[in-house]
Amino acid sequence: MNKSFFDDDDEDDTLGSPGRSSLQADFNSNRAASPRAYGAGPSKSARASSTTGGRQSSVTGAQANSSVRAYESTRGGSPTLEDILGEGSSHDGERNVQKLIRAWNNEMGAPELLKYPKRLVERLVKDLVHRKALVKEANQMVGEDEALYLQASLVATECMRTAHVLKSYQRCRIYKIEQFADFYLDQEDREDRLSPDELTHAEGYSEIRKRYMNDSGRDAFPSSLLNKDMPVLEPDLSQAVFVHVLRECGPVLLPDGELIPLAQGSQHMLRYSTIRSCLERGDVELM
Amino acid sequence: MALSHRRRWGLTPQDLDFANQEREIEIVPMVRLPLTSSNDGPLAPQFGPFNPPQKAKVPLWFALQMKKKGKCRIVVPGWLSVASLEETLREETSSDDFSPLPRDYVELSNTLLHLASDDFPLHSSSDKVKILLKDIREARQAKIRVGAGALNPVHLAMPHLSSMEILELRPTFSTAFQRLRELNPEAERHEAIAGMWLEKEGEARRRAELGEFERGDAQEGMEEEY
Fold first, then answer.
1. Distance of CA B74 to CAs A96, B44, B68, B112, B119, Å?
2. Distance from C-alpha of A103 to C-alpha of A117, rounded to nearest angstrom
3. Same domain, residue pair A197 and A243
4. Which residues form the DNA replication complex GINS protein PSF2 N-terminal domain (chain B) (predicted)?
5. Could you report the per-residue pLDDT of A84-109, keeping only the tens digit for each?
6. What is the ipTM score, two decimals?
7. Which of B24, B33, B219 to mutate to test the interface with A (most CBs of A within 10 A)?
8. Which of residues 42-71 of B touch A (CB under 8 A)?
9. What is the residue range of A118's domain?
C-alpha cells in the first residue's frame, strides 16, 4: 500500500481488523441518539442515517445501529459502562483535547508544577491509539469512497493535533520537574502532582545530579560543609502570571491587603500566589 | 533539554495559534458528509453532518482542513467586515479603552487572510480588511506602550487585550514586575500577606474584610487600570 500523508510511522500496534462496516460506523457514529453535534439543524440523526444508507450500501441499518457495539469491540477488552461514559458523561461541550490544551497553557504559565490530570491523559492516549488504527484501516481503502477518505483525513488531523498537544505538555512538565526535582520529591502531595513515570524520572534525575555534584568537587569540601544539606531550589510563587477568568470567583486578596473580585471574562496580571487556589478550582486559566 | 529555549517564557505565537484553532467557526460545506465523531468517542461533541448548502459550526482546524481540500467555504465572522472594522478603528482612536474585539482576533484574522482570502465578501475585500487591521493594531500598540506606565508589583487589569498582544508584552511586563517587586519598599509586608493568603485563605480574607491590612495613603495609585 502506498503511504499517504496521514500514515503514521511511529505507530505499529496491530489491532484486530474491525472490518469496513464497523469502521464506517465508528467514524460516522450515526446513532439514533447523538447527544451533541457540531453541525446544526433538526432531525440530524434521521438525515445522517438516510444519507449513509443512500451513499454507502455496505452500512446496512443493522450495522449502523450497532455502531456503539463496534466502538466497544474495536477497543479491545470489555469496557465497563464507566469506561464508555467515562469523561463523556461530564461533557460540558468541551472535547478532551480542549481540556488538555488548557492544562498545557496553564502548565506553561504557572511557575510550579500543577496537578497531573491522570484520567484525562490516559483516556486521550487510549482514544488516540484506537483512532490511529482506524485511520490506518481507512487508508487501505482509499479510492473506494471519497467521503470516507475525507473523514479519515480529518480524523488524522485531529490525531496529529492531539499527539502534538500531548507531546508539548509532557515536555513542559519534564522541564519543570528537572528544574526543581528535589523540591517536588519532598512535597507531601507528590503522588498527586506527578504521574508514576514522572516520579521515577524525578528520582533518577535527582540521583544523577547529586552524584555529579559530588564527583565534580563537592567531595573536596571541608566536612563541616558536607554535613549540611544541599539547598533545595524552590519555584517562585510570586512570579507574575497572566490570567483569564473563566467563571466569576470570590474576592482574592492582593499582597497589598486589598480584596478584589474577579469578574468573568476579565484579564489580569498578578502574582501566581494570589490566584493559586482559583486555578486549582479551574475558575481561571493562565495565558 | 526538554523544552526549547524559545518556550521558556511561555507559549510561542505558533503555539497560541495552534491552541486557538480549537475555536468554532461557521462553514458552508460543499460536500455531503455524515456525522464524524471526535476523538473522544460517540458520546462527545461531534462534527457534522454536512448537508450543503446548510451552514455548520466546526472547529477552525477542521474548517481549514476542509478548505484546503476545497470542500467548504468559511463564513467570515461579522466583526471582520470593513464596516465593522471601521467602527472599531473609530472607537479605538477616539477612546482610551481597548475596543472589545475577540480575544484571538490577531490569529484568526491572520489565518483567514492567508488561507481563505477568497471567502471574504466582495464589499469587504481582504486588502481593505488588511489595512484596517493594521491601523487597529497600531492604535492598540500605542495604548499598550502608554499602559506600561501603570505597571506595579501587585496587580494590573488588562481588559479586552487579545491573547496575542499579551504574549507580546509578556516578557517585558513580567521582568518589570519582578524588578518592581524587588525594589518595592513594602516588599516584606506584601510577602507576608501573600504567604498568609496561600496558607490560610479563610483567615486572610476575614482579616482583609476587617481592614487590618489597610495602610492608607501608600497604596493609592496601585490599582490603576489601563
1. 25, 24, 11, 9, 6
2. 8
3. no
4. 12-75
5. 444 443 446 678 888 888 889 888 88
6. 0.83
7. B33
8. 42-51, 54-59, 61-62, 65-66, 69, 71
9. 81-85+93-226
Residues 107-136 in A contacting B (C-alpha not used; CB under 8 Å): 108-109, 123-124, 127-128, 131
The CA distance from A169 to A97, in Å, is: 12
Q: Residue A172 is nearest to which of B3, B41, B197, comparing CB atoms?
A: B3
Pair (B216, B124) in one structural domain: no
pLDDT single digits (tens) A171-207 = 989 998 888 888 888 888 888 888 888 899 999 998 9
Do B216 and B107 sit in the same domain of this protein?
A: no
Q: How far apart are the first and last CA of chain A?
A: 44
Q: What are the tens digits of pLDDT across the range B200-222? A: 777 777 777 777 666 543 444 44
**Domain end: B98, B126, B149, which one?**
B149
Q: Does B48 share its domain with B118? A: yes
Predicted confidence (pLDDT) at residue B94 exceeds the cutoff of 80:
yes
A214 and A281 housed in the same domain: no
User: According to the model, what pLDDT value does residue A42 have?
Assistant: 41
Domain that holds residue B184: 155-225
Q: Looking at CA atoms only, how far is residue A223 from chain B in angstroms?
A: 34
What's the CA gap between A110 and B35, in Å, rounded? Answer: 38
Confidence of residue A27 (pLDDT cuts 50, 70, 90): low
Identify whether the C-beta of residue B42 lies closer than 8 Å to the C-beta of residue A91: no
User: If you compute the radius of gyration of chain B from its CA atoms, what whole number of angstroms results?
Assistant: 23
Together in a domain, B114 and B201: no
B163 and B97 in a single domain? The answer is no
Strands A259-262 and B36-37: unpaired
Average predicted confidence (pLDDT) for chain A:
70
Interface of B with A in 167-196 (CB under 8 A): 167, 170, 173-174, 177-178, 181, 186, 189-191, 193-195
**pLDDT for the residue numbered B215:** 54
